[in-house]
Amino acid sequence: MRGWIFDTYPDYQKDHMVSWIKTEDGVDKLVDRKFFPTFYVHGSRKNLKSLADVVSTHKLRDLSFERKKIKLGYDGKFEVLAVTPYRYKDVKLLAKMIDAQGGYRDFELYDIDIRLAQRYLVERGIFPMAYVDVGNEFILLDEQMAMEYPLPELKHTEIGVKVGSANKIKKFNDPVQAIKVGERVFKDADEIDLLRGMVEEIRLTDPDLVYMKNGDSFLLPYLYNRAKANGILDEIQLGRERQSSRPERSGRSYFRYGRVEYKPPLYTLRGRLHIDTGNSFLHMESGLKGLIELARLSCIPVQTLAKLSPGTAISAMQVNQAMKDGHPVMWKKNLPEDFKTAKELMVTDRGGFIYEPVVGIHDRVLELDYTSLYPSIMVRFNISPETLKCRCCPDSKIKVPEIGYNICEKQVGLIAKVLKPVIQRRMVYKKRGKEGDLEYKERSDILKWLLVCSFGYTGYKNARYGRIECHESITAYGREIMLRSAEIAERHGYRVLHGIVDSLWLEGNGSPKAVAEHLRNDVGIPIEIEGVYKWIVFLPCKSMDVGAMNRYYGLFENGEMKIRGIETRRSDTPEIVKKAQYEMLDILSRAENSHEFKETIPEALGALKVWAERVVYGDVDLEDLIFTSRVSKPLEEYAHFSNQVAALTQLEEHMVDVNPGEIVRYLLVNSESMKASGRLKIADLVEDGDEYDKKKYVEHLFKAGESLFQPFGYDLERIEEEYGV
Questions:
Q1: If 0-12 CB within 10 Å is exposed, 13-18 middle and 19+ buried, where does residue 569 land?
Q2: What region does 469 belong to: left with phi over 0, alpha with psi -120 to 50, or beta?
Q3: Residue range 570-580, pLDDT digits in tens
Q4: Which of 48, 444, 593, 649 is the most buried (most CB within 10 A)?
């Protein structure tokens, strides 16, 4: 049988691995009963012998002493106790028992928490969506790092549900009113018939891929709940075989990059792929082809990967490389930051280099961007936890600028091994994507996010192969490259207007191609000409009168506008504010230079006044007035009354739970009211004709004007005075 590895997962009830193979004729299920994961314990010889006596009293498949390369970057082997539990679910149970047995200090444990599907695929030498010949074993007919690879035709459908709620707030105890499966709509029947009709339609059409908007956060748990309420839960089979209605992982709130986010429960379908189009960041950013690309590289099955982050994928790729190199993966990484004096901290803990932007408008500005600068630094200078400050090369000629850390000259680091092919393939995909091929653009987009996260994970304390000294070294090289780049640009007749991490904005009449070529040859990292602006406006910080690092807008010579940091780029901005600001930008785009730009400002503000008048006279769609806010904590933990508190209070009255990290949507009714019902109205409850806070919405519109024109003397007070309604 030949086909593609469509999906892989462990069956914890029967203790075997399941793979679904997509062939040209359909989909077949394969069961592997010979895969039993082993984990390893390292400690003193005496402690390991005592531990073996204790562990042998448990039901195991195997227990033995082996020698393993447990230290990354060191090929010497150490004695370990290899434990193969009898049941899949016993791996973590035994690991926790052993850790406690050693007082959480005597033993180091390895290969504990790697996803079983990922580990199985790596150990079998295969990967998701690989083309294989299946007999007594998998014969790979594909290459994991191939840039051109065949993919199967996947039949897909979409499931949508209309909830029969008393109001627009959907709850699990509301009955099903209608169900849509693909083009088929089931309605005008009792709930049981609707649910059975959905199941039968899935069975008859037999899709490979099922799309659901908010499938993990609402739709699937809602359908299971309604089936249970009607006594037919055992009939709800949306996959190709029966499975539990419980999620594989519960929802959880977590802190990431300065804000609280929420990851919904994880629901998968056995034998089919479930993609939640409302919650899958990776799918939203790259589409199905990008998702498949990343699944092939990371060895995480497609529908599981769809629920995860790019950082999880890059971490998985590092784990895979370590396993291929013969290194078990440490369970609870314990790599503290090296001791530093206050002076050393001043030198090392500095971050990326930034040229403060020159606030105002500038003509003919060249923007240059280094391609994946930080990942390229990691590859070019071999920065990895085991190569940095290595003991084998104390006199290495490769020293980190300013800091002086030595870098290994004898071996290629784990991080470089993983990132080098990713950088190379993204460059190829990006070029082909610019030529109009959508599939390559999707692949390029997914790899962009992968590379972005690769740098952040070097300094993340919980990353398996993170080390803060790596993070410091990368930024040190980055600072040197930016300083060197500025010097070269000035030799070509340019003045640096702004620079941030991997991008430079240069004003002058030099040759863009010449300066880019000089930088490429001198620095040794690919650099791209992002474009030449007819004009660009760098904006000040809102709280102080200095240039903001990432707030600007400008018009390229090809007519395209680039926008960063203003209202149109924010997810919490009401649509009416975005539309008004886009119209102002459209008017400004007719300007060929700074002189014409300034002459156009009154016309743009005149258009803004028209939007304000529409708000005052009620000539707006209420949906365009909806605010979106992210909840950072439970209602009872808020100390002050705010819009989030008012929204959460209303939702609580309707018995709707909101987890930290989830968003709430609302219409602002009276921003000065100190009562929840008076302050705002939840978006799901908004009806035509509802009143709203006209003064506050006009203020938000004028603030959008201030964002664009503050460098030209148009602050909020002046705009209200000259263009108020």
A1: middle
A2: alpha
A3: 989 999 999 99
A4: 444
Q: Decide if 111 contacts 39 (C-beta within 8 A).
A: yes
Question: Please, which residues have CB within 8 angstroms of residue 288's CB and are 6 or more apart in sequence?
Answer: 154, 209, 275, 442
Per-residue pLDDT at 669 exceeds 70: yes
State the Cα–Cα distance between residues 82 and 66, nearest whole angstrom.
6
pLDDT attached to residue 510: 92
User: Are the C-beta atoms of residues 385 and 335 closer than 8 Å to each other?
Assistant: yes
Helix (H, G, I), strand (E, B) or coil at 294: helix
Query: Which helix or strand (DSSP H or E) is residue 504 part of?
Result: strand 503-508
Per DSSP, what are the bridge partners of residue 60?
85
The pair of structure tokens assigned to 36 is 């039993």
Tokens of 174: 């509301």
Q: Please provide residue 386's backbone torsions phi and psi, each rounded to the nearest 5 degrees.
A: -90, -15
Q: 3-state class of 595 per DSSP?
A: helix
How many Cβ atoms from other residues are within 10 Å of residue 663's Cβ? 16
Q: From residue 115, how far is each of 48, 122, 123 by CA, in Å? A: 26, 11, 12
Q: What is the mean pLDDT of residues 335-347?
A: 82
What is the rounded average pLDDT of the residues 403-421?
95
Contact at 8 Å (CB) between 19 and 32?
yes
Q: How many Cα atoms occupy the beta-carbon half-sphere of 342 within 13 Å?
A: 0
- Which pLDDT score is estimated for 38? 97
- CB-based contact 476:327 (threshold 8 Å): no
Q: pLDDT (tens digit, 9 = 90+) per residue, 11-66? A: 999 999 999 999 998 999 999 999 999 999 999 999 999 999 999 999 999 999 99
How many angstroms separate the CA atoms of 477 and 488, rounded? 17
Question: Could you say which DSSP state residue 87 is in?
Answer: S
* pLDDT for res 434: 86
Instruction: Give the whole-angstrom CA distance, residue 110 versus residue 332.
Output: 8
Could you give the C-alpha distances from 479 to 348, 371, 448, 604, in angstroms and in order? 11, 16, 21, 39
Per-residue tokens: 565: 């940091």
Q: How far apart are CA 705 and CA 404, in angstroms?
A: 48
Length of the chain in terms of residues written: 725
Please, how many CA atoms are within 13 Å of residue 166, restricted to the half-sphere of its CB? 2
Residue with tokens 């408008």: 361
Judge contact between 55 and 98, C-beta under 8 A: yes
pLDDT of residue 10: 96
Rg of the chain over all Cα atoms, to the nearest angstrom: 29
Tokens 């748990």 correspond to: 221
Q: How far apart are CA 440 and CA 432, in angstroms?
A: 6
> How many Cα atoms within 13 Å fall on the side-chain side of residue 597?
20
Q: How far is CA 343 from the centre of its chain?
A: 36
Q: How many angstroms separate the CA atoms of 193 and 175, rounded?
A: 12
Looking up tokens 């263009």 gives 723
Rounded CA separation 633/556 (Å): 42
- With beta carbons less than 8 A apart as the criterion, state whether 33 and 61 touch: no
When pLDDT is averaged across residues 402-412 and rounded to a whole number, the result is 94
d(Cα 631, Cα 121) in Å, to the nearest integer? 38
- CA 175-181-182 angle, 5° bins: 150
CA 26 – CA 17 distance, rounded (Å) = 20
Q: Order of strands, edge to edge, in the sheet holding 27-32?
A: 27-32, 16-22, 2-11, 131-134, 138-140
- Find out whether 477 and 381 touch, Cβ atoms under 8 Å: yes
pLDDT tens for 244-261 read: 999 988 888 877 666 788
Q: Is 123 helix (H, G, I), strand (E, B) or coil?
A: helix
E strands within 164-272?
176-181, 184-186, 209-212, 252-256, 259-263
Kindly state the helix (H) or strand (E) to which residue 69 belongs, with its residue range: none
Report pLDDT for 257.
65
